[in-house]
Q: What sequence folds into this?
């Protein structure tokens, strides 16, 4: 059984710089892209198995149509359409990932979208399956796809008012800090019946290892007498 | 109505049991001295000494709890796993997972409850006729679970409906769910669940934020 | 004897409505659409929005011609696909149009992952496609390894492929059960769950959990195979093919099953590609696109397998495709067990991984199609953007294309043949 080898040395702990995946031949693809797309495609970047180009938002239909209809490029499958928010001072990006049977690498097309007026043409004319992608990007980021026949919210309710995946949408840090704190009596310490809780603890703690009569839990730092031990690890 | 009249040797009990699907007669109830609830409606505990017939009735209810098919998420798969051949919940009488809430006894909330689904789920709960019980299966329904900080997950089903049994786990093993159902059997037999102290507040049409109506 | 005039007995529904109006005005809410009257008056009974349609497509679906009606197959329905709502426009029994309403299980996983460390992300992506959990973890593990610049050891890659193929067997077996359950056959689901329970017990021997495994790590997997896993695997392998064939014979040649599935919901290859359908659904329409062959990842370059396709794109073909893929997966598992090398199962990575700033895209073949992750790192301990592309989400777009013209009862058959899992659809 020659395929079962002896024990291998462990992978390098800081394995940076090693090959990520088996590198694929991207040369022909890069050449074709520069020929066909010219200046529309900026920022060509390659990885072991991905080629990336950046385009303006307004050019996305033209570029994707060229990529799909060209015989030698033949990117017939839209694998993913994602939206990225680079911050409240920066821009949005709509990122398309395409697959072609003629080229072994994934192609990533990053389309730049202004944050102040986030509009970009729809690609549902090219791939009908982009409809749900665009609805999701509208729902989560607020990017409006011009020409999309069905741009309504898909995950949140129709009368929801925010765009959750934007950078300025902050999650409630803890249920205790949210508006709905205290709805559940278990979240209100004044309803706890400490006598009943002390009678039969759900969890047993081992006694202290130093003294037999020591309390089960260790010292509570910073807890005054009579207070409940709350989490002071960060300001609330 | 109790299946057996209360012991006639003792004084007549102050509060008859209100059956919510009959239109209550407010004056008659006030005459009886029923306690009025501030939000409308009356309530009274079952002030009947349970007799053997009541016990048998509770036993019947416990041994044929029909769950509602309300699987939301991953816990639903474990609930289905509990319902199928390897861990068979049919031996406890829970084979028919009713699709219609009108025919179901227990609502096993299996899976994450989101704010969009909260409206339909509460409507399902309201449509279930009494006696009814609710089992919160999984940590997502107990407390929000692994989605504790999410913007669209209800942090525990007990924020929207009264829960009788909490079954922790993510997802709970089928044996865990069966243990939870055994606890529910105890509650049913002892009339200890939320149903026995249910407050009838009249028809509720709470409007949930995001309820698509 | 004179007959006394009795006052008419009020209809309880009117009493209810009066009570509701009273409560609403007392609470300061506006009247509902049915109380206001107007053209949107009747829709709230089936939960439709009581406001004008926002988009062209919505107006198209919700405007009724003569003889049409809207049927709401609500978020809770006996089909076992989870919480999805289908608003179906019918003329009699024939479907005219269909509008899937999603989002009843949206948990905000992408947003939660932006605040989690790279290792915690594994616990968040587990409950997405909860029937094929290992695939949910495989794609993020690959993407994060690309970001961090590390390679998993060979043994880890083999274990990954092994558990992934085991999960595929379980998931495809379940699809067979759900397909017959949705058409009323209550027996095959029991057999499917027996198969699933065997596989899941196997995987719990290796990862400790029955369903949401949290097994993959950046740089490998968490635990090595142990004796219990190997012995259970041997027992399972010795009888799985017979079981699958027995389950298959229950329904493949069944006349009712064939009558209900052959020629139903035909999806052509061209339409499937335009709609973004992938995986067994696409291969059943004749297009030989399998991510394991198209863009090989992990050890799939070293394993021998073909890409199976079917010609007709109907429900029966999608079912046959999955049965064939179960057998192919068992063949792959045999090869993996033969060739598994010795070695470590996880590369050394720090507890909190801080990759260099960059972007990575990783795609795997899940039982529902192409499952991919696009991750952006900014050098910190949390991913800057974590995007998952779920195949069931995209496959649902095929419903409004396939269903018009069929009967209502076929909705569930067609939906079950696409095998969507709402956890992935709604993230």
A:
């Amino acid at each position: 059984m020659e395929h079962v080898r002896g024990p291998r040395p462990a992978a390098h702990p800081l394995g940076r710089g090693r090959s990520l995946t088996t590198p694929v031949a991207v040369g022909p693809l890069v050449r074709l892209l520069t020929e066909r797309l010219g200046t529309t495609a900026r920022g060509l970047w390659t990885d072991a198995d991905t080629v990336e180009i950046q385009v303006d938002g307004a050019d996305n239909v033209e570029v994707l149509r060229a990529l799909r209809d060209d015989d030698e490029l033949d990117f017939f499958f839209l694998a993913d359409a994602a939206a990225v928010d680079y911050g409240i001072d920066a821009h949005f990006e709509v990122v398309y990932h395409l697959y072609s049977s003629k080229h072994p690498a994934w192609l990533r097309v990053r389309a730049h979208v202004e944050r102040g007026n986030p509009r970009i043409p729809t690609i549902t004319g090219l791939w009908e399956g982009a409809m749900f992608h665009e609805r999701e990007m509208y729902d989560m980021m607020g990017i409006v796809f011009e020409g999309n026949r069905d741009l309504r919210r898909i995950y949140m309710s129709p009368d929801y008012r925010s765009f959750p995946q934007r950078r300025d949408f902050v999650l409630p840090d803890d249920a205790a800090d949210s508006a709905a704190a205290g709805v559940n009596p278990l979240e209100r310490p004044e309803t706890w019946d400490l006598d009943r809780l002390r009678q039969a603890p759900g969890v047993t703690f081992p006694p202290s290892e130093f003294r037999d009569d020591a309390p089960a839990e260790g010292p509570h730092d910073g807890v005054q007498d009579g207070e409940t031990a709350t989490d002071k690890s960060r300001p609330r | 109505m109790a299946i057996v009249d209360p012991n006639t040797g003792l004084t007549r009990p102050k509060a008859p049991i209100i059956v919510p699907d009959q239109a209550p007669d407010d004056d008659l109830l006030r005459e009886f001295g029923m306690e009025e609830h501030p939000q409308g409606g009356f309530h009274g505990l079952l002030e009947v000494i349970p007799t053997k017939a009541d016990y048998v009735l509770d036993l019947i209810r416990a041994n044929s709890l029909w769950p509602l098919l309300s699987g939301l998420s991953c816990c639903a798969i474990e609930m289905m796993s509990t319902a199928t051949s390897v861990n068979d919940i049919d031996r406890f009488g829970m084979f028919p997972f009713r699709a219609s809430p009108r025919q179901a006894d227990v609502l096993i909330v299996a899976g994450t409850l989101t704010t969009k689904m909260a409206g339909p789920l509460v409507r399902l709960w309201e449509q279930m006729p009494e006696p009814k019980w609710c089992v919160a299966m999984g940590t997502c329904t107990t407390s929000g679970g692994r989605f504790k900080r999410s913007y669209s997950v209800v942090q525990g089903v007990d924020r929207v409906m009264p829960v009788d049994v909490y079954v922790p786990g993510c997802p709970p093993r089928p044996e865990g769910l069966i243990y939870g159902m055994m606890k529910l059997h105890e509650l049913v037999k002892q009339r200890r669940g939320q149903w026995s102290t249910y407050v009838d507040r009249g028809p509720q049409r709470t409007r949930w934020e995001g309820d698509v109506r | 004897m004179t007959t006394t005039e009795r006052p008419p007995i009020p209809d309880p529904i009117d009493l209810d409505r009066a009570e509701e109006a009273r409560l609403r005005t007392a609470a300061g809410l506006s009247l509902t659409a049915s109380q206001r009257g107007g053209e949107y008056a009747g829709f709230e009974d089936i939960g439709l929005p009581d406001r004008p349609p926002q988009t062209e497509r919505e107006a198209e679906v919700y405007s009724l011609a003569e003889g049409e009606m809207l049927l709401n197959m609500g978020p809770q329905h006996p089909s076992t696909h989870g919480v999805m709502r289908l608003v179906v426009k019918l003329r009699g029994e024939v479907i005219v149009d269909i509008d899937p309403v999603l989002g009843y299980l949206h948990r905000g996983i992408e947003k939660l992952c932006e605040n989690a460390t790279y290792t915690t992300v594994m616990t968040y992506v587990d409950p997405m496609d909860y029937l094929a959990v290992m695939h949910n973890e495989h794609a993020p593990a690959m993407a994060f390894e690309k970001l961090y610049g590390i390679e998993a050891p060979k043994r880890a890659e083999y274990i990954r492929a092994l558990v992934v193929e085991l999960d595929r067997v379980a998931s495809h077996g379940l699809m067979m059960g759900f397909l017959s359950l949705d058409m009323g056959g209550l027996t095959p689901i029991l057999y499917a769950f027996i198969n699933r329970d065997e596989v899941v017990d196997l995987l719990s021997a290796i990862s400790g959990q029955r369903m949401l495994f949290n097994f993959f790590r950046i740089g490998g997997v968490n635990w090595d195979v142990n004796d219990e896993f190997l012995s259970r695997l041997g027992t399972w392998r010795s009888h799985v093919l017979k079981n699958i064939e027995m389950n298959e014979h229950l329904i493949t040649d069944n006349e009712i099953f064939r009558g209900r599935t052959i020629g139903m919901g035909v999806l052509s290859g061209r339409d499937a590609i335009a709609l973004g359908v992938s995986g067994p659904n696409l291969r059943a329409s004749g297009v030989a696109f399998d991510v394991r062959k198209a863009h090989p990842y992990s050890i799939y370059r070293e394993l021998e397998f073909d890409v199976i396709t079917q010609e007709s794109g109907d429900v029966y073909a999608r079912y046959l495709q999955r049965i064939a893929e179960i057998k192919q997966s068992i063949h792959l598992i045999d090869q993996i067990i033969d060739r598994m090398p010795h070695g470590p199962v996880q590369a050394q990575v720090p507890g909190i991984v801080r990759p260099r700033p960059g972007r990575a895209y990783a795609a795997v073949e899940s039982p529902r199609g192409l499952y991919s992750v696009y991750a952006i790192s900014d050098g910190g301990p949390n991913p800057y953007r974590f995007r998952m592309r779920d195949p069931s989400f995209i496959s649902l777009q095929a419903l409004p294309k396939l269903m018009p013209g069929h009967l209502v009862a076929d909705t569930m058959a067609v939906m079950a043949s696409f095998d969507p899992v709402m956890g992935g659809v709604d993230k």
